[in-house]
Description:
The protein is of the alpha/beta class and 294 residues long. The chain contains 3 helices and 22 strands.
Amino acid sequence: MIKISLSAKEVSALNDDFVDYDHGKSENEDHAPRERAGDFYVSGEYLTGYFGPGGDVTIPEGFTKIDRRVFKCGDAVNITGITIPKNVTVIDTDAFSFCANLHEIRVEGGNPHYCVIDGLLLKRDGRGDLVLHTCPPARSGVLEIPEGVVRIAGFACCGCAGLTGVNIPGSVWKIGEYAFSGCSSLTHVTIPEGVKCIGEAAFYHCTDLTHVAMLEGVRYICEEAFLGCMNLNHVALPGSVRKIYADAFWGTGMSEEAVRAAYEQVRENAMEAGASAPGDISDEEAFYLLDDGD
Length: 294
């Protein structure tokens, strides 16, 4: 059985993520029926919907959780700025992906869970580590992710159609599901050596992506990671890759022969690395945990 080595801190983080993962279902779905409050629908402590005119929006005080479906209908596309109060404790993944004109996210001072650095919404997990939660969808050019960020959350940069490049610091070791999906102007990306997992559909439909440089250290390339990257003709895989999951390169510009060769290369890598130190977690256990849970 293939073994890999993760630190105790990383395994703890992955376990926490998996427990919290909603697998596409909002935590609020089973809560009380919605009521209207100003420009929002609410349910208990959750904001569950928005029907305002757009522009600059302030999340009302008194609600601590923002559902992933709040800004997915109506005039949410016209929102240009959002202010998050200091009492907000949970913002579901994919909360702002449909706000195509969102340029600025602000967090009131004193919020222990969320902050903004270089215009990016970051969260602190239970260990105090920084996680990139959201890049405003209207951001353009080359994205510089701050040093010290350890994970890129699922959907963090989803729909950022103006991004042309991204610089990922060496502190990052996980790229979440759909993290850069729909970044249709993204042309190049370097996966640094600290990254162990490229999540499911992480670069889905990045149609202008032509160059991916993976440095030594990447272990897993999950399902549909580069699905629909039609101009991606070649990816040089490092020897550290232990598994490529289904359809990771489906719909790219890579030939069937090239994809088959990539899978074969990874099998050979796995066989060569079969004898690892006792106590490492297994390949199957690691993938179970690496199923994105931001």
